[in-house]
Amino acid sequence: MSRRALKAINWAAFAERIPESEKTTLSAFKSKSDKFLQRMMANPEALPKIDWTYYKKTIATPGLVDKFQKEYESISIPYPVDKYTAEIDNAQKETAKKIEQFIEETNATISSMEKEINKLKAMLPYAEMTMDDFIEAHPKAFMRTDVVTTWPHTDDSQEDLNDDTPDENDH
After folding, report:
1. Which of 37, 80, 115, 166 is the most buried (most CB within 10 A)?
2. What is the torsional sign of CA 103, 105, 110, 115?
3. Rounded Cα–Cα distance for residues 171 and 164 (Å)
4. What is the Cα–Cα distance from 53 to 58, expressed in whole angstroms?
5. Predicted TM-score (pTM) of this structure
6. Banded model confidence at residue 145, pLDDT cuts 50, 70, 90
7. Domain boundaries, the chain
8. Phi-psi region for residue 90, left (φ > 0), alpha (ψ -120 to 50) or beta?
9. Torsion of CA 156, 159, 165, 171, to 10 degrees
10. Cis-peptide, bond into residue 80, ω within 30° of zero
11. Ramachandran angles phi, psi of 119, nearest 5°
12. Where is the signal peptide (predicted)?
C-alpha cells in the first residue's frame, strides 16, 4: 500500500452505495483509516538525509561513522505485502463476465418477448375471431373432441397412448 493509494479512496462513493444500516460501520472504518493515514503522514516518506562528512570530521573513532552510514543506508522498511489487489481484480473480472452473461441472456429474453409481442399484434383481435380462429391460435387452450383425455386434462396427467411398452400388469 502506498501513500497515494490511501489518498485515492473516494469515501463519498462508498457512502452512496451502501445501505443505511451499514453507514455507522462505514463511519467507524473511515475514522480508523483516517487515524492510520494521519499517523503515517506524520512520518516522512523517505529516511532523512544525514551529512556524513560532518560526522566523519567531528568523530575521532575511525570507521564508526562509516559503520553507522552503511547500516543506516541498508535500512529498508517495507510496506505490507499487497495480497488483496489481485483478488479484487479477479473478482472484478468475474463480475464483469457475469454482467456480460446477464446482459446477453436479458437481450435474448427481450428479443424473444418482442417476437411474442409482434406475434400477438399480428394476430386477429379476439373480438373478430371465430371459434376456429381461436382454436388455431391457441390449440392447447381448447379441449379437442378427437383426442380422448382423462381428468384433469393436462398434458402431464395423460398416459401416452402411443407407448408400446407393456405395463407390469399385462402378461
Report:
1. 37
2. positive
3. 14
4. 9
5. 0.42
6. confident
7. 9-43, 49-75, 84-146
8. alpha
9. 140
10. no
11. -65, -40
12. none
